[in-house]
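Aim 2 progress update. The chain analyzed this quarter is reproduced below.
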Amino acid sequence: MHLPKLFKTENFEILKEIIKNNSFSNLIIYNEKILTTRAMMLLNGNENDFYIETHLNRANPVARKIDAENEVLCEFLGVHTYISSSWYDHTNVSTWNYEQVQIYGKVEFMNDIQLYNHLNKLTNIYEAPQKCPMTLEKMGKEFVEKEMKGAIGLNIIPTEIKIKQKFSQNREEKNNVRIISHLEQSEDIMDKKVAKKMREL
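Predicted structure tokens:
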């Protein structure tokens, strides 16, 4: 990730928010060639001691090639949108405003108990809003354990963390105001989210 100082942050709360709101993200590995897959990821722990947990289908090419020796990359894209140069009060280039988290880490493979607990936690989070939530308990232990045989669980321990918020910090205040105004007038939900982030900054 290109990370100019102006767009860099070390705010753990921002990292947590981006991961929570964009948990179905990229898991990238290198083993003879670059491989990537989408995976559900959960953040555990606090600012000084945290890790990412996820799971993959054993048939997934990434699952077949991943190992504990090499680093992996978890990449999360937060809110983002196009910024038109027509909004500035001078001639310039158009750009994209966005926030992003990259976490490099080492893999630790889950045992069966850890994988069960991970799937239980994940299911409870996403089933909670449903009218009739389906829990692992309702599915039955025998069924869940049978399905688990087709999956591997991963804990990813961070070795390097990058948090980027590129929200026109390099623009003069008057042009920031113009950008925010155009985004707020848009009917696009993402535009409005970016405008909100810009106001917060």
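The longest strand covers residues 151-166. The CA atoms of residues 76 and 183 lie 23 Å apart. These observations will guide the mutagenesis experiments scheduled for the next reporting period.
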